[in-house]
Amino acid sequence: TLLNVLVTLNRCKIVRYDPEVRSLLPETLDASKMLRRRYYLMERSKDAEVIGIVVGTLGVADYMEIIMRLKELIQRAGKKYYVFSMGKLNEAKLANIAEVDIFVIVACPENTMIDSH
Fold it and tell me: Using alpha carbons only, what angle is made at residue 51 by residues 109 and 66, rounded to the nearest 5 degrees?
């Protein structure tokens, strides 16, 4: 997707075609802001006591191995986990699970929850 292109080729000038205005528009991404947020969330995740492993899709290659590895790492850290399988993910569904401090989503890289708060 466009986000993956912007992250991967962040030093290149990227444009997209907008059919409504029939022209090319420049696309930008503040990669340093995105990385700062990612590092902040990684640090915050260290404080979580209960971790939700959300299986967003079964189409991810080797998803069971990924889940087993996550379980192993979480147990080794002395934390508790729950595994959830959900179809269409959204913030409201996850917000209903109050006892979970942080979620790890096992899904394709195009998952839109990545930018959610």
Answer: 45
Which residues face 24 on adjacent strands? 17
* Residue pLDDT, tens place only, 5-24: 777 777 788 888 989 999 99
pTM of the entire predicted model: 0.68
Handedness of CA 65, 71, 77, 82 (dihedral sign): positive
Please report how many Cα atoms fall inside a 13 Å half-sphere around the Cα of residue 7, on the Cβ side: 10
CA dihedral sign, ordered 5, 10, 14, 16: positive
CA 30: distance to chain centroid?
17
Q: Is the dihedral of CA 77, 83, 88, 93 positive or negative?
A: negative
How many alpha carbons lie under 13 Å from residue 116 in its C-beta half-sphere? 15
Four-CA torsion 95, 100, 51, 115, nearest 10 degrees: 20
